Structures are given as structure tokens and as C-alpha cells.
Amino acid sequence: MINLYRWIVSEAKKDGADADIAKYDGQWEVEGTKKLINRGDLGLVMKSRAKHSAISTMLDQPFVFDTKPFIVQYEVQFQDFQECGGAYIKLLSASDKLKLEELHDKTPYTIMFGPDKCGEEKKLHFIFRHQNPVTNEFEEKHAKKPDVDIGKFFDDKTHLYKLAIFPDNTFKIFVDGELVNSGSLLEDFQPPVNPPEEIDDPDDKKPDEWDDREKIDDSDARKPDDWDEDEPMEIPDPAAVKPESWLDDEQQYIADPTAKKPDDWDAEMDGEWEPPLIDNPKCKESGCGEWKPPKIHNPKFKGKWIAPKIENPNYQGEWKPKKIKNPNYFNDEHPFTMTSIAALGFEIWSISPDICFDNILITSDEAAAEKGSFLSRFAEAAEEKPWLWVVYGIGLTVPFAILGYLCFPKKRDEAAERKRTDAPSPDDPQSSRRDKEEEESKETEKKKVPERK
């Protein structure tokens, strides 16, 4: 048993397949992608081409479908594009018989979700296994086709697939944050969760005398006397005239006069050598060989005569068998309560190798899923346009800088401000002394000035 971190590679064999292709011998690695080998971000990569590959891991705790939503999302990157094969995830049903090292195509699962492609056929699966409460047997229910063209998601870029199922029996599917499908577990799956109350009676047979012909041939109609069924659809154009320059004795094709027999031609092995034929250059202007007038539509052509149709006076309508009560009828109003999930895995076959799976999340917390989706789209955009890291950095730095400026304003230097404005400081002893000396000097000057008479 191979263990990649917490992932267990299957060693099972596929039922009903030839021995040389039945074994699950596809290789798996935990490594970086080809485009971003130095980024340090590792993913689970299916390495093999045209092999059955299966790998799985247990959940930390089983997911129980009760009153909370179920959300699963994961990233897929077809590093070498995708020719034919799947990249869907299987959410394995909780069971005492579950053995991850024996994961194969018949291992019971609760939900299968993800992309699949072969040639021009492209799918986005959402399948859940529903248990019939009458027979206790499980049946696969397939969601309706997506509402948008999903072909654009099968390139070599990373795409985030997300499935959300809610306790009110509704579901939504997103790819890269774009809503591509939504609906009801009760109304948008085939076959339907709940069977019809009535079914056709299998023992009811159409009577031999039942006439379901809506129209019949008019028995009173007669073919007109001048109707000639032998007239051809086209006839030679009687107005056509052979061109005067037409060369009756020339062949349309002639032997290539420039062709030479190969030196290694063996007449005994290859037969008598003959030069290849080319168009006769003499025939370019008008034509060569036997001249035949062109064909035109025959105005007398009518084809085979068919009697006209009339209403059938004995028409009884389309026969349908009578209805009886369905012995297997049931009404499950809560298909959301599916079998608990104990593990997740990938059981796939693909022509294209190097399919990378990453950032797998199973949760009932819509906010956590949305956060994961945002971070995934953030990283994907930066992978495609590295200069966006600079934009993101500036976008994150500027708000914090403004917040810091508002919360922690710069302390003003009061001394520098007084120096700039020459304003005195009441607590400065030198300033107080200087002010006192100036006052005494002014009083002395006043005494020296004599009074005018």
C-alpha cells in the first residue's frame, strides 16, 4: 500500500475488464505544477496516461446530512489539456466495509461531482446515489445539464469547481465563481427521486383491430391517364450545340511526357512501368473526346404516382396502455438527507496525464467556502498576470497606511513652532528674563526724555 501523506493509492482491479487493463496501476505524486514549479504550492497529480487510477483519503470526521448545507470545492488543472477522461471527485459513503486500498468503480459513493470530457462531448457531473425506502436499493440520480457552455473550462488553466447542496433540497454549481447550474433535487434529476404514483399496465396489450392511422390513402383517387412514371428526371438539352473547336479524336488524359522510369524499377516485381497520366493541354480551351450535350430538367417528369391522403374515418387515436398503481411508489420529501460521507477520492481513467488536484474543501460553512473561492481566484489571476502581485500589495498597504495616519497623528514640535513664530514660552526661564530686561529698558528711556513746556 502506497501512502502519499494521508492519501492511499488503490491496488484494486476493475471488474469486467481484461487482465492487462483491469488493474488500477496509475501513478500519483504530490508535487508542484509545471507552470509554477518554484512557487512551493503542491498538489495531488495523476501522472499516468491511459491507465485506471484511484486514490483516496479519510475525512477527519464523517459528514452527516442534517440541517446544515453541504459544500465541496476543489481545483483541477489539465496541465496537458484533456483529450478524453474525467477529473471528478467521489465522496465515498460511510460503511464498515470501506477499504481505501481497494477503491474501484463499484465502491459505494454518495456524490460524484466534477468535469469529464471525451472528444467534443463535455460534461460537468453531479450524481448522487439515492436509496429507495421500499426496496432499500440505491439508484444514481443525474443532474440536468449546465445552463452555460462548459467547454471553456477544459484548457490548461486552473479552475475551481464548487457544489453546494442545501437542506431545502436545492443545489448550486459554480466554476471559478460563475454559477453554471442550479435547481432542485426533486425536480431536476433523471431518473426522478420519486417514482410516479401510476404506471402503464405491463399486461395491457393493444387490440389487433385498433386503428391508429390518422390518415389513409384515398381509395377513390385514380392516376391520371397522362401520368408517365417512366419519364426521367433529367434529359439532354436539345438546344445545346457542340463547340466547333471540340476535339473528338483527342484523349482527355495523356501520359506525362516528362516522367521517367525509376532506376530501381523491377519489372518482374512491379510489373510493366507506365508513366502517370496528366490533363491533355489541348483540351483546355474547349474539350476532348466524345461530346455529349449537358443535362437539363425534364418538364414531363412527374415520378411515381401516389394516391393523396384523406382523414381516416375509423381513426381511434394513439393507443396507450391503461394505468395501474405503482407497486414501488414512495414519496421522499427530503432527498438532501443522503448517506453520510466518510472519505473522498478520485477514481478516474484519462488519456491525458498530469492532472493536478488542489485546495479540496468540504464544509457546511458558506463563508469559509467563499473565502476559499476568493483566495483561489486571487492566486489564479496572479498566476496568469504576475504584475497583479504588485497591485495587490499596494491595495493592501494603502488602507493600513491611511488608518495608521488617522489613529496615530504626528506629534507637533511646540518648541520648533515657537521658534518659527517667535512666540514666548511661559515655562522658559531665559525667555522670562529677557522679557523683564526689555521692560526695564523701556522705563529708563522714558525718564531720559524731558517734558516739553
UniProtKB/TrEMBL annotation:
Bilayer topology annotation: Single-pass type I membrane protein
Compartments, record wording: Endoplasmic reticulum membrane
Gene3D superfamilies registered for this protein in UniProt: 2.60.120.200, Calreticulin/calnexin, P domain
Superkingdom, natural source: Eukaryota
Annotated segments matching region Disordered: 185-246, 416-453
Entry's Gene Ontology molecular function annotations: calcium ion binding; unfolded protein binding
Bilayer-crossing regions: 387-408
Cellular compartments per GO CC: endoplasmic reticulum membrane
BP GO terms, sorted: ERAD pathway; protein folding
Annotated keywords: Chaperone, Disulfide bond, Endoplasmic reticulum, Membrane, Transmembrane, Transmembrane helix
Record flagged with keyword Chaperone: yes
Extent of Basic and acidic residues compositional bias: 203-225, 443-453
Keyword presence, Disulfide bond: yes
Disulfide bonds: C84-C118
Record's function text: Calcium-binding protein that interacts with newly synthesized monoglucosylated glycoproteins in the endoplasmic reticulum. It may act in assisting protein assembly and/or in the retention within the ER of unassembled protein subunits. It seems to play a major role in the quality control apparatus of the ER by the retention of incorrectly folded proteins. Required for embryogenesis and larval development under heat and ER stress conditions. May be important for germ cell development. Involved in neuronal necrotic cell death.
Family: Belongs to the calreticulin family.
Name of the protein described by the UniProt record: Calnexin
